[in-house]
Write a structure and sequence with these properties.
The complex is a heterodimer of chains A (277) and B (250). Chain A is α/β, with parallel strands linked by helices and 277 residues long. Chain A has nine helices and twelve strands. Classes of the chains: A alpha/beta (277), B mainly alpha (250). The complex binds fe (ii) ion.
Chain lengths: 277, 250
């Protein structure tokens, strides 16, 4: 069975709709923020996509780590969107994007601290209760730590273990962070609660300086990230895998060949792993 | 539960990203922080440039950049959906009187005009109701296309490409509507017709077309009333042909 999906971008919609079953990705991931309350032409496209592909949702604006109150009106809209399209997987980022009601539409790093863990755990529980489903939170890439009092892996593990949420493991983000903050990516992954990984992200990035990589989603996946992906799959049960490509699009067949490459690795590594490892 | 110190560090990071202050935030790498500022600026700049291509092309580069920069730093944009963020620039540009600051008197109208096109294009879908053609019967409740906005402008923005509109300050009315195929069209109206359409739309739920005309033209001389009724009927038939009125509700 196919495991690998593709992130939806408007630029890719015609190509996605024209594929046949044999070549199409396993599923499509989209950000509910881009679709909630949207009508007209793009709503029709979404309908066509949803008739052709299973859909998963990956949100951008939950701001689970924000000091601001949760935006319940927005969460309510997400819930009805999930219901309308029968979406059973909703993930978000372990980051924050607003404070004092100013939204930045980007993913800011949360201080790795005990009080932030408690704050976030409480909020995850509230969201999961309201949505009546578990959510998965993604390890984000970050370019500077912020007033950290514990390690990143301790921070992520505490949140996942205490809240009961799942982990969206972004393998490229681990690679980017390991490079930017000078740690060992394999070892870092080994420190995470791998039994809670429910979804994987893979993407490309851009090295902008000798000591800095920016997580752009605008390039092809590099070999080292494929290797990290391979070794990670040996340690976890089969889960959906997603290729994120947000801009700087090559010919569509090149994107599809990345999807296929991920699919082949997943098939090879997980062929004997239909059960929990 | 969040300690005051942690809360204020998080707030400082957001303020740094918005305001480009010194970024002296405890426990951060000074040489890396600016990446966030740059990434966020790009997200705003691109979303605003996509939403307002005409305004961007009319302003000088430094004026556009200043407007974006001031918007990020001075306007706390309380909006979860990025595609709706540019809407808030209209209010901010008015607060800051950018029309006067940049000596482009029609700037507010232009932003409004560009946003309305996006808004109508993406208006939430409403279930279609069944209708009968206006020509098929004499009276009934009008069914207006739900994806339309009637806007009043001080400058004829729709003539911007062909004319120097700065000299043409006045009252302009545009009906902006979404067609069945999803594309957005606009129609210029005179003040009388704009007002008539507004009333017809407003009363269409509670009153029939002819009842509405009786209300609107009440007290006028019967000759004039007959003339205006004919005008209104012809207007509605032409609006039906354009898809602005769908017919009588069935
Ligand atoms: Fe990701």
């Amino acid at each position: 069975m196919k495991q690998v999906g593709l992130g939806f971008r408007r630029d890719l919609s015609d190509d996605l709709l024209s594929l046949d079953t044999a070549t199409q990705p396993a599923f499509i991931e989209l950000a509910p923020e881009n679709w909630v309350n949207l009508g007209g032409y793009w709503r029709k496209v979404l309908k066509s996509i949803s008739e052709k592909y299973p859909i998963t949702c990956h949100g951008l604006s939950l701001s689970i780590g924000s000091p601001d109150e949760l935006n319940w009106a927005f969460i309510k809209e997400v819930k009805s969107f999930l219901k309308e399209y029968s979406i059973t997987i909703y993930s978000e980022h372990l980051s924050y994007s607003q404070s004092n009601n100013a939204h930045l539409f980007d993913l800011l790093p949360i201080p790795f601290r005990e009080d932030a863990v408690k704050h976030i755990v409480e909020r995850i529980k509230q969201v999961q209760d309201y949505l009546e489903m578990p959510i998965a939170l993604e390890n984000v890439s970050y370019y500077t730590p912020v007033a950290a009092e514990m390690s990143e892996s301790e921070f992520i593990s505490a949140i996942v273990n205490e809240s009961g949420c799942n982990l969206l493991l972004d393998v490229n983000n681990v690679y980017v962070n390991a490079f930017n903050h000078n740690y060992n990516a394999e070892k870092f992954i080994g420190q995470l609660p791998l039994h809670k990984v429910s979804y994987i992200h893979m993407a490309g990035h851009e090295k902008v300086a000798e000591d800095l990589i920016i997580d752009t989603h605008g390039q092809a996946i590099i070999q080292e990230v494929y290797q990290l992906f391979e070794s990670t799959l040996e340690r976890i049960k089969p889960v959906p895998v997603l290729l994120e490509r947000d801009f700087n699009f090559p010919e569509f067949h090149e994107i599809l060949s990345e999807v296929n490459q991920l699919e082949q690795i997943a098939a090879r590594k997980w062929s004997k792993k239909s059960e929990l490892c | 539960m969040l300690r005051d110190e942690t809360r204020s560090i998080q707030q400082e990071l957001v303020e740094y990203c918005r305001m480009n202050n010194d970024g002296d935030i405890v426990g951060t790498r000074q040489d890396r922080l600016h990446n966030y500022r740059r990434l966020i600026y790009t997200i705003y700049w691109e979303a605003l440039s996509d939403a307002y291509p005409i305004a961007k092309s009319i302003l000088k580069e430094e004026q556009w950049d200043k407007m974006v920069d001031d918007f990020i730093s001075e306007y706390a944009c309380n909006e979860s959906q990025l595609f709706r963020m540019p809407f808030h620039l209209i209010e901010f540009a008015e607060q800051k009187s950018f029309s006067e600051v940049f000596s482009i008197p029609y700037l507010s109208d232009l932003l409004h005009f560009e946003w309305i096109e996006i808004e109508v294009h993406s208006m939430k879908d409403i279930e279609e109701t069944s209708t009968l053609s206006l020509k098929s019967r004499e009276d009934g409740h009008l069914d207006f296309n739900p994806y339309l906005k009637l806007i009043k402008l001080d400058y004829p923005i729709h003539r911007l490409r062909d004319q120097n509109i700065e000299q043409l300050k006045g009252n302009y009315f545009l009906l902006v509507y979404r067609q069945k195929n999803g594309t957005v069209q606009y129609m210029e109206l005179n003040g009388f017709t704009a007002n008539l359409i507004e009333q017809l739309s407003l009363y269409s739920h509670d009153f029939t077309f002819l009842e509405t005309l009786n209300k609107v033209f009440k007290g006028l001389h019967s000759n004039l009333r007959d003339e205006l009724n004919t005008h209104a009927i012809n207007l509605c038939i032409s609006l039906e042909e354009k898809g602005i009125i769908r017919g009588f509700k069935n």
